[in-house]
Design a protein that fits this description.
By secondary structure, this protein is of the alpha+beta class. Helices cover 38% and strands 26% of the residues. The chain has 3 domains: 1-20 and 99-240, ATP-grasp fold, B domain (D-amino Acid Aminotransferase, Chain A, domain 1); 21-97, 2-Layer Sandwich (Dna Ligase, domain 1); 244-398, Rossmann fold (3-Layer(aba) Sandwich), CATH 3.40.50.261. The protein has helices at 5-14, 28-40, 69-79, 129-135, 153-163, 170-186, 231-234, 244-251, 270-282, 299-310, 329-341, 358-367, 376-398, and strands spanning 23-25, 46-50, 63-66, 83-84, 87-88, 92-96, 99-111, 116-122, 140-144, 189-203, 209-215, 219-222, 255-258, 263-267, 289-292, 317-324, 349-355, 371-372. Helix 5 packs across helix 6 (170-186), helix 10 crosses helix 11 and helix 11 (329-341) packs parallel to helix 12.
Length: 399
């Protein structure tokens, strides 16, 4: 689960990291009020930032500077309801404009291979870290945090010094790097990222100026499996930007991931689902999804899974592979019959069910004229063959 920037900034601020103030707004009028408050508090200008869970906001025109409340309202009018990478902007963040002297990248990510948190930093901030990794891999410093003690002092100093953050910025850089790891652990996050971490020049009320290190942008991705421990974070989920299919899958407790192929897969058990996808590929096809209905799935869960698969227009054939342990084969079969009766479009289906109540399941499927298979290999081959036949027929019709 990805958090919007303003939520991520709240978590960093709550952990004591230096984050500029900000206000969230959904209308130009609200933006004007927020800008007026920030300017009255001493800001030299404001920035209006689209709140969408995709990158490239600045290039798309979703980040604008404003010197007055009126300018901020006009900027909000241009940003709100615009579309960035297919996402409609429904809210913006209004924050003080910053006089940036230098930008850095600093982030903490879960390194599953090493089974530790990996802290990464680069002196080339303000751009996507993936671009830096491709073009200048040596420009990224990487340090694994201690699995129990977090990022140790000497490790944080190593990161800071590698970025060139010395002198008055060293202590702050160390505190921020260690803070990112604490935020990650406390919130069961997969990623906590600040880009840019920036040295900014600020003017005090007496007219004097100072420079300090500030977290200007924040990105946090949470581990969905840990969300039951964090109901407050679950409440921050932005349903406006979530695929409706993902929302329904979560509500039905179905593990569902979109892929790029044309063979829809409906399976019970994560391992069996992976095996099914492998056999589809071995037979020459491409799976359209990973879908695990879990153990003990009832007919209504099966029907919901079918709806999720059919919402993908690329799906040409559906392969159902059920091993009945806790899951009853006859329940699955009834769900398939019910789902087919509700299908919005006709899609061939190949079904393989073994295990608990498999004979009853076969009877139900035969009476409903389903295509069945005895083995998983045969089911995968039949599904791929059906897909090829559909593709050939479509090609012939096109000619």
């Amino acid at each position: 689960m990805k958090l919007q920037e303003f939520h991520a900034r709240e978590l960093l601020g709550a952990a004591g990291l230096p984050v500029p103030p900000g206000r969230v707004a959904t209308t130009p009028g609200e933006v004007g009020v927020a800008a007026r408050e920030l300017l009255a508090a001493g800001a030299q200008g404001v920035v209006v930032k689209a709140q969408v869970l995709v990158g490239g906001r600045g290039k798309a025109g979703g980040v604008k500077l404003a010197a007055t409340p009126e300018d901020a309202e006009r900027a909000a009018g241009q940003i709100l309801d615009m579309t960035i990478k297919g996402i409609v902007v429904r809210k913006v963040l209004v924050a003080p404009a910053s006089d940036i002297r230098h930008e850095y990248y600093l982030g903490a990510v879960l390194d599953r291979a090493a089974q530790r948190i990996l802290v990464m930093g680069s002196a080339e901030g303000g751009v996507e870290i993936e671009q830096v990794a491709r073009e200048k891999p040596d420009a990224i410093v990487r340090v694994h945090a201690h699995p129990h003690l977090g990022l140790l002092d000497f490790q944080a100093r190593e990161v800071a010094l590698a970025l060139g953050l010395t002198g008055p910025y060293l202590a702050d850089a160390v505190a921020i790097a260690q803070g990112l790891v604490r935020v990650m652990i406390a919130n069961d996050a997969d990623l906590v990222e600040v880009n840019p971490l920036a040295i900014v020049r600020e003017r005090a009320a007496d007219g004097s100026e100072r420079e300090r290190l500030v977290c200007l942008d924040a990105k946090i991705t949470l581990d969905d499996s840990a969300l039951p421990r964090h109901p407050d974070l679950e409440a921050r989920r932005d349903l406006d930007e979530e695929d409706p299919a993902d929302t329904e899958a979560r509500e039905q407790e179905i593990n569902f991931i979109h892929l790029d192929g044309s063979i829809g897969c409906l399976v019970n058990g994560a391992g069996l689902a992976m095996t099914t996808m492998d056999l589809v590929k071995r037979a020459g096809g491409e799976p359209a999804n990973f879908l695990d209905i879990g153990g003990g799935a009832k007919s209504d869960t099966v029907a919901a899974a079918m709806r999720l698969i059919l919402e993908d227009p690329k799906v040409q054939v559906i392969l159902v592979n059920i091993f009945g342990g806790i899951t009853r084969g006859d329940e699955v079969a009834r769900g398939l019959v019910e789902a087919r009766a509700q299908q919005s479009r006709a899609v061939p289906m190949v079904v393989r069910i073994v295990g608990t109540n498999a004979e009853e399941a076969q009877r139900i499927l035969r009476e409903a004229s389903f295509q069945t298979a005895e083995s998983l290999e045969a089911a995968a081959e039949q599904a791929v063959a059906a897909g090829r036949a559909i593709g050939a027929a479509a090609g012939g019709a096109g000619r």
